Amino acid sequence: MTDYLCGLSDHLCAANEGFVVDRVIGYRSLTLFFSGTITDYTDILTAAEQYRHEARSVTETSELIRLPVWYSEESGSDLLHVAQYCDLSVDEVITLHTETIYVAAATGFAPGFAYLGYTPEPLKMPRLDTPRRVVPAGSVAIADRQTAVYPSSSPGGWRLIGRCPTRLFSLDWDPPVKIQVGDRVQFYPICQNEFAALGGSP
Q1: For the whole model, what pTM was predicted?
Q2: What confidence score (pLDDT) does residue 5 get?
Q3: Range of 92's domain?
Q4: With pLDDT > 90 as the criterion, what percentage of the chain qualifies?
Q5: How far from 153 is each of 21, 113, 132, CA to CA, in Å?
């Protein structure tokens, strides 16, 4: 669905260049914001229907972003609990989490926070009953069948399994986020020394 919505968004923006001023892609929705000069939406609806029949996909052309993660009980306080809950070893949890290529289905909650789906079924985890008041920036977490990296220190109720040293948001960038809807993301494991060398904060 994300691939379809990303393609539809690009198609409609290209067909209505100068009229679309912003767009927001969700898990199952696309919202377009138009300038006040447009009064007839017939062509837009026709273009959307045409795209639906063509059923294009952006999966193969979207960017693949690889993110390093230091997986450990020290960097991810829920890692052992996740392994026990899922009846897996810690190494199996790490393997399942890193062998999957995720798609950014939506962004929100905090600037630079991307909802990545889907984790393998064996890693399906409920959220915490009571969210933490503070989750360290860079924390890699899972909840239900989603995974994400907290771009900044914030409250959060997802299960923490590691820490990523890569910066995901900056107002100095254009666009200001590293992961955008439709991007593909894959994690790879690093050790504590590599985490520190890449600028990770303890």
Answers
A1: 0.78
A2: 63
A3: 64-197
A4: 62
A5: 31, 11, 11
